[in-house]
Structure formats: C-alpha cells, structure tokens
Amino acid sequence: MRKLVVFIVIFLLGITAFSQHEGIRRYFSSYKLDNDTTTDYSFYNDTLIDDFHKFMPQQKVSNNTLGLMNPGSPYLNALFSRRESSHDFYLLNNYQAFIKSHQNVVYFDTQKPFSRFDFTGGNTGLELVKFILSHNFTPYFNLTFNYDISNSDGFYLNNAAKVNALYLAGSFTKKKYQNHFNFIFNKINSNENAGIADIDRFVSGDIRAVDNSVLLTKASSSISQLGGQYNHEYRIGHYTIDTIIRDEQKDTILNKNLHSKFSIVHDVTFDRYVRKYQDQYSSFYTNYYKDSSATKDSVTYYQFNNKLLLSLNFQNDSTGNFLKLYAGLKNLTYSFIIDSTHKTTYSSTYITGDLIFKHNKTYLQANADYCLFGGDAYDIDVSANLQQMFTENLGINANVGYSLTYCSLFETYYTSNNFQWDNDFNKNGIATAHIDLFQEKFHLSVGANLNLLHDYIIFDQQALPTQIHKANLIADVYVSKTFNIWKFHWFNEVAYQYISDKQYVRLPDVVAYSSLYFKTGMFHDALTLQVGIDAKFNTKFYGYAYMPATAVFYLQDDMEIGNYPNLGFYIGAKIKRFRVFAKLSNFNSTFMKPTFFSLYRLPDNPFAFNYGISWEFYD
User: Fold this and answer.
1) What is the pLDDT of residue 567?
2) Mean pLDDT across 229-239
3) What percent of the chain lies above the pLDDT cut of 90?
4) What is the rounded CA–CA span in Å between residue 65 and residue 77?
C-alpha cells in the first residue's frame, strides 16, 4: 500500500508539472564508444510508450526469454541467433540484462543538465529503480552517473534477488585530444532454489506457486564486478569551432569539427569479477568433494586489456561520406582463481583491425581479431555488417561472421564442493550469417539467420561440460509486421527455428509475440493514452534445467515445456517527458491450467500487477 500511495503522489505531481515543461526538445546528444563513436538512440527511444510496459530487464533483450521473470535470475533467449555475445566472465553469460558493461556505457554531450528517474513496483515487493544524471561542466567536459537497483522477493520460495548496477562515465573532447573513461560496479545477490519440488501438484493447481516447496532452501549466490576503462585519442589535423545561433530558442550551439586524417588511439580496461556460492547439505547434489555439511565456493577472474591502434580517416565534409581504418595490437592478460588456491594466468597478443565505410545509402563495418601468440594463440574472430538503403523506406541489414577460439577457462578446469572437471577441449567454432529486409513505411521486416556450430561446448544431463564434434546447423526465419487501422495497432513477430541436432541444443521450433493496442491523443494531444493486450508463446520443447552451483543451463529429458500463451493487459500514458504504465501479467493463469514453465522446474511468474513511471528533467 505504501508504494501505491507513493506512486499516486508522483503521478499527480507529474500531471501538475505538465505546465512546467517548455516542450519535448532533447538538449543532448549521446553515443557509445567502440574504437569509433556510434550514435546512441536508447534515450531518444525511451520517450516512446509503445514498449514502456515491458518493464523487466530481460524484456529489453527479447520479447521471448526463458527463465524466471525476476530481476537477478538467469535467463536464455528462446531464439539461438538472438543470444547475447559471450561475456568475458563466463558465469555472467546469463545475467547480462541486469548489469552495466564497458561496451554499453553511454556518453553524453548536454546543453542543459539531463536527468531521468524510473520506478517500477508490484507484487512480491518488486522495486526497480533507475536514475541517470548527466552534466556538461564545460562545453568539452561531461560527467554521467547511471545507477540501477532492483529488489524482489520473487513468487517462489527462496527466490529473492537484489541487483546493484552503476557506472560513472566522463569525456573530455577538447580540440585534438579525446578522452573517455568509465568506472563500473555490478553486484547481484540471489537466493537459489533450483526449482519447485512438486511439479505434478503445481500443474494440477493443488498448490499455489507461493506455497510450493523448492529443491534448495539454504542456497545463495553473488556475482560482482569492479572495473574501469580509459580511452584516449590524439588526432593530427586542424580543429574548427562554429557557433550556431538558434533565434527561436535564444541559445547557441557549438559545432565542433576536427579535420583529421590520422590519429593514435590507446585503450586500457581492467576488471575484477567474483562469484560466490553458499549452501548447506541437501539431496539435490550427488557429490560432495570437500565438505558434506556446507558449501562455500568462490571463483575470481581478473582481466586486463591494453590496446594501441593507428587510425586513418578519409571524410568528405560536403557529403558526409567517409572511410575509417583502425589497425593495431592488443594484449589480453587474464587470471582464473578457484577458492583462492588454484590460479591460472594467460597472456595473449592480438592483431586487430576495423573498417568503417559510408557512401550515400551504404554503411559497412568489418572487424577482425587474430591472436599472434600467447595462451589464445591462433584464435580468430572476423565479422562484417552491411546496411544498404534502396529507397527512403526500403533497405537490408546483413552480416556474416566466423570465430574459432579456445573455450573458457571455466569450461576447461573447475573444482568445487559439488562439481569437478578437467578437460582438454579443441577450439570451438561458429559461422554466422544474417539478412533482414525491412520496409519502414509498411512497418514490415522479414529475415533469416544461419548458425553453423562445430566442436561446441554443452552441459550434459549431469551438468558437466561436454564437447560436441559433430556440426550442428541452427537456422531461423522470421517476420514482424505492425498493422495500423485508425487508432488501433497490432504488432506481430513470428519466428520458425530449425535445429539439425536437437539432442544437444534444446530450443522451441516456433517463437511468437503479439501486441494489440489502442493509442490516441487527448486534451489537444497533450496526453497520449495507450491501452492494449500482449501475448508471448513458444511451442513445446525439452527446456533446459538450471544448476545453481555453477550458474549454467544443462540438458534434461524429463519434461517438455511450452504451448502456453502468456497474456498481459496494460495501460500507459505519456505527458511530454512523463510516462506511466500499469500492467496485469499472465492474467490467463487465473483460469487456465498452470503449465507456464519457461525452464525445467522453473515456472514463469503467475498472475501479477505492476506499475511504473519515468520522468525526465532538464535544469
């Protein structure tokens, strides 16, 4: 009740603040840094309400994720081709939606201080809070603080989780010397229950979700990261600054242009990761190698990345066309420490390069990494991405890639209280291809993905790593389309997924998401109202099980899951920079058989009510 009162008060404040805003103009530009700067649109898109009701971090990754819909709980993407890239720390692979990373840090250039506050609440004590503050202290120096925190007790016993994720980022971009830095801290604390114990009584409806016993009642885990990155670039050339006066706004904008064809880039990154797992004896685990009464496992991973690049930049100022080339060396040093006793350290030196090309309606980016010597000797990772616009609304996105790399140190050697292995695996490889044809005017996109795996690693029915030498082809075709009739809109996305060897890769054949909503302007379009219903669905398959001790998904042959349409009803509104939503999730669980499992023994959330706001400020 306390949260509901706070929510209502904040909502009323948002209504009264309507007259205080001078408009919806954005007073900043934002970008990400990966050798070259790339424009970031996430904060522009966040002013929309079409997807605002997708409040869980997992839903920002995909409409169809598999796993407990609880912040801090591991998840998988239902489509193999849309999985996230492997994390540097293997044990964070299934948690990436909740944490900050150096690659996703957003840098700002603000004309006015920018801040935004987001809050989401609901059943089981769910609290999602997001706060960002960005300020240019001078026209060239910006600091940004981004902080996310989440708390939830979960719908099932021993399912509570808490996440803290933040970064402090800064940029100093005066004249020829460009500087960017960030500091990152992530911490996920989770109770681990390994799933519900009595599946049959749960499915029959005899036991409510909250009353069902679980396999582990004393287990917990934590994953943390502390890291920093510093990137600086010296550009050789001449620098010009033009002052643009905006009469209608009565302010000025500094248009900074550096005419440089050559630069030197240096980037250094350091990260420390720690995962801890604690438990007391239970019959869930077959083996106890160290202590049969209690488990206290820990893994620490250090990584230091040092990169030096030379850059060539050929740009036509009148057309905006350009060709950028980056080439250089990087050194990667990493250590894997188990229970503070076993330590493995490697150092590898790579030759690396990027090519970025833009000409009229063509944009091409390609990159390559090749390990010359060291622990990862002869590893290779190459990829190319192409966007080609044929008309203003019609275009294609295409990419190809191939990697042949050593498996992670965790997959090679590990020893703990419940699991031990020592493997000599071959390098694992994957070839990928993707094409997407889109027509923006008709809100239509069709595409296909191809993945060819060989010598890949899976975790078998005993949750042990196993290398599969036989090639496995995984492909999918999909179509997404929005139908617009008057003020009614219907978004649909359907994908069919083919897996040549389902013995080792277990994912559904069909994955679908649909959202039907009514959207209209009210009070002379001062308020935008949206009311809708959405549904996610996937066909039956032998879903993965989750192993708390090692944070991996592994194969199981006991139960098929799927064929359950998870329905939600939502209402949202936007008043300039203020947004609000309320949603009833999985409301059909109140009258349908509770078969809404997304993983083995791990049901999706039952019926729930959630609400949230987002509010931007410029002052």
Assistant:
1) 97
2) 88
3) 79
4) 5
The pair of structure tokens assigned to 62 is 């995909």
Whole-angstrom Cα Rg for the chain:
25
Q: How confident is the model at residue 208 (pLDDT cuts 50, 70, 90)?
A: confident
- Spatial contact of 174 and 184, defined as CB atoms under 8 Å apart: no
For residue 232, what pLDDT is reported? 96
Q: Could you tell me the two tokens for 233?
A: 């670039």
Nearest residue to 563 via CA among 543, 590, 544, 585: 543
The two three-digit tokens of residue 143, written as one number: 């600091």
Is there a contact between 154 and 163 (Cβ–Cβ < 8 Å)? no
Q: Which is nearest to 143 in space by CA: 116, 109, 177, 112? A: 109
- pLDDT score of 18: 41
Give me the pLDDT at residue 10, please.
Answer: 52
Cα separation of 87 and 413, whole Å?
A: 18
Do residues 562 and 508 make contact, with C-beta atoms less than 8 angstroms apart? yes
Average pLDDT over residues 426-450: 97
Which runs of consecutive H residues, i.e. helices, occur in 491-581? none
Per-residue pLDDT tens over the stretch 459-517: 999 999 999 999 999 999 999 999 999 999 999 999 999 999 999 999 999 999 999 99
Give, for 161, the enclosing helix (H) or strand (E). Answer: strand 161-172
- What are the contacts of 507-510 at 24+ separation with CB within 8 A? 507/78, 507/79, 507/80, 507/474, 507/541, 508/78, 508/538, 508/539, 508/540, 508/541, 508/562, 509/539, 509/541, 510/537, 510/538, 510/539
Q: How many other CB atoms sit within 10 Å of the CB of residue 523?
A: 9
Distance CA 378, CA 156 (A): 47
The pLDDT assigned to 187 comes to 98
Query: Exposed (0-12), middle (13-18) or buried (19+): which is 508, by Cβ within 10 Å?
Result: buried
Q: How many other C-beta atoms lie within 10 A of the C-beta of residue 394?
A: 15
- Show Cβ contacts of residue 391 under 8 Å, excluding neighbours closer than 6 positions: none
Task: Rounding to the nearest 10 degrees, give the CA dihedral for residues 186, 545, 157, 121.
Answer: 50
pTM, 2 dp: 0.92
Q: What is the largest CA-CA distance in the chain?
A: 75
Alpha carbon distance 94, 74 (integer Å): 5
Q: What percent of the chain has pLDDT over 70?
A: 92
**3-state secondary structure labels for all residues of 413-454:** EEECCCCEEECCCCCEEEEEEEEEEEECCCCEEEEEEEEEEE
- Distances in whole angstroms, Cα of residue 145 to Cα of each of 106, 130, 131, 385: 10, 11, 8, 31
Least confident of 26-40, 100-114, 378-392: 26-40
Residues 6+ away with beta carbon under 8 Å from 330: 305, 306, 307, 308, 349, 350, 352, 369
Least confident of 43-57, 176-190, 573-587: 43-57
pLDDT above 70 (res 38): yes
| Contact present, 566 and 536 (Cβ < 8 Å) | yes
Please tell me the predicted confidence (pLDDT) of residue 16: 40
Note whether 343 and 337 are within 8 A (CB). yes
Q: Report the C-alpha gap between 380 and 517 in whole angstroms.
A: 46
Helices (H) and strands (E) in the chain, counts: 5, 35
Q: Using CA atoms, how far apart are residues 183 and 145, in angstroms rounded to an integer?
A: 10
Query: What are phi and psi for residue 19, nearest 5 degrees?
Result: -75, -10
